[in-house]
Amino acid sequence: LAKTTQPISMDSYEGQEVNITCSHNNIATNDYITWYQQFPSQGPRFIIQGYKTKVTNEVASLFIPADRKSSTLSLPRVSLSDTAVYYCLVVRYSGAGSYQLTFGKGTKLSVIP
Amino acid sequence: NAGVTQTPKFQVLKTGQSMTLQCAQDMNHNSMYWYRQDPGMGLRLIYYSASEGTTDKGEVPNGYNVSRLNKREFSLRLESAAPSQTSVYFCASRTELLESPLHFGNGTRLTVT
Q: Cβ B45–A98 below 8 Å, yes or no?
């Protein structure tokens, strides 16, 4: 399995940039890195994904170093509505059209006014 | 499009009772997944189906069975519920492409007394 490790929780004030780092030391060459956001009483929602270097969309940026053993989700200028649990997920092809999609325990981000 | 629909939203069972959790998606996705979420444990994969007609075990399959009824529907059955199966259950779907994100339903909250 592609295992991931994240901090259990983080606090941030409104307006600050937040960086959440995920460790995936046993990542394989063709694995893909994705991040999800989950609000209470809802299913996780896809935020961003990448293979290497930097990816940016309207919500976040994802930084992946050359060795790909970690990735960092960056949320610019967080607001109270960004309070949620953030999951890092490594997608690994396991053959015959199947993929391993193993979530970690997530990082609970609390944004403080 | 409704996306991924799960029924019921809530359920209370007595130990030893059986029930089936239903999941349907209208996005023509090949792959479907069942996860359970417990406090502090993140999301753990129970079973998945890479395509219609195939199912495979995930991390925590004991006590569960699944049926991929057709391309749209993937059900999860508890034959003899136990208190350890008290959890929130999420169904998800995706295409067969490596970079395809998971689309989640809003979950079924199950309590076994």
A: no
Question: pLDDT tens per residue, chain B (113 residues)?
Answer: 689 999 999 999 999 999 999 999 999 999 999 999 998 888 999 999 998 989 999 999 999 999 998 999 999 999 999 999 999 999 999 998 888 999 999 999 999 99
Compare CB distances from A102 to B45, B98, B101 and report the shortest one's residue: B45
Judging contacts by C-beta atoms under 8 Å, the chain A residues touching residue B42 are 87, 103-106
Query: Alpha carbon B6 to chain centroid distance?
Result: 9
- Residue A41 burial (C-beta neighbours within 10 Å; 0-12, 13-18, 19+): exposed
- Across the interface, do A99 and B51 touch by the CB < 8 Å criterion? no
The DSSP letter of residue A24 is -
What percent of chain A shows pLDDT beyond 90?
78
The H-assigned helical ranges of chain A are none
**What are the backbone angles phi and psi of residue A108, rounded to the nearest 5°?**
-85, 115
Residue A81's SS3 state is helix
